[in-house]
Amino acid sequence: MALSRSENMARILGKDTKPENLLRKELWGRGCKGYRKNYRIQRLRPDIVFVGKKIAIFVDGCFWHGCPDHYNRPRPCRPDGEKYWSDKLRENVIRDIKQTLYLHENGWTVLRFWEHQIEDSLNFVADAVVSVLEGANENYLNRQRVIHVTQVKPGLEEWILVDLLGQKEDVKEYRKRSEKVTNQVVE
Ligand SMILES: [Zn+2]
């Protein structure tokens, strides 16, 4: 199974580089210490919650949550594996959509960042969080999500991308299959 980029980094560096922890540390270092981790909102558990300001932050793994830049369709060895991974991706993306809408309906500001944003531009992400804490009305949701990838023919895949808020048409794209190994970083 594919390792996430952060897991790869952690292996190489031998320390905790989980993206949500990197963001927590960065915010802490900037004096934004008023957050809770493992705070539950009904059955939801965002990675970082500012309870008083009703701000819920999620750090979404590029593989598990369908990053348009880094999702990588697994090539399973078992015959039913294709369906397993396909269902898994769909379930996760649908859950993200429902969570986000539920929180919006209940007056929460939701921020969702990709793990690659934490790893590539932690400063940008932390700046974004701080600006929203200070009242900026910005959308940091990364709304486009891959929900389905199928092989059309060897080397070519059909990608379906959806909008996290369900307000935009689905997008269908054809992409060449990278010949790189599954867990390799695609730049
Ligand atoms: Zn990504």
Q: Sheet bearing the most strands, described? A: 3 strands, mixed
- Going across the biggest sheet, name each strand in turn: 1-2-3
Query: Bound compounds, please?
Result: zinc ion
Work out the helicity level.
25-40%
Strand content: 15-25%
What's the overall geometry? globular
Count of spatially separate domains: 1
Account of the protein in words:
This protein is of the alpha+beta class. The protein has one domain (5-143): 3-Layer(aba) Sandwich (Endonuclease, Chain A), CATH 3.40.960. 34% of the residues lie in helices and 21% in strands. It has helices at 5-13, 19-29, 81-105, 115-133, and strands at residues 48-50, 55-60, 109-114, 144-153, 156-163, 171-176. The model is unreliable at 180-187 (pLDDT under 50). Bound molecules: zinc ion. Zinc ion (ZN) is lined by residues 62, 67, 69-70, 114, 116.
Summarize the structure.
This protein has 187 residues and is α+β, with helices and mostly antiparallel strands. It is built from four helices and six strands.
What attributes characterize this protein structure?
4 helices; alpha+beta; 187 residues; 3-stranded mixed sheet; disordered C terminus; binds zinc ion; 3-stranded antiparallel sheet; 6 strands
Q: How do the strands and helices of this protein lay out in sequence?
A:
Blueprint: H1 5-13, H2 19-29, E1 48-50, E2 55-60, H3 81-105, E3 109-114, H4 115-133, E4 144-153, E5 156-163, E6 171-176
Parallel strand pairs: 2-3
Antiparallel strand pairs: 1-2, 4-5, 5-6
The structure holds zinc ion (ZN).
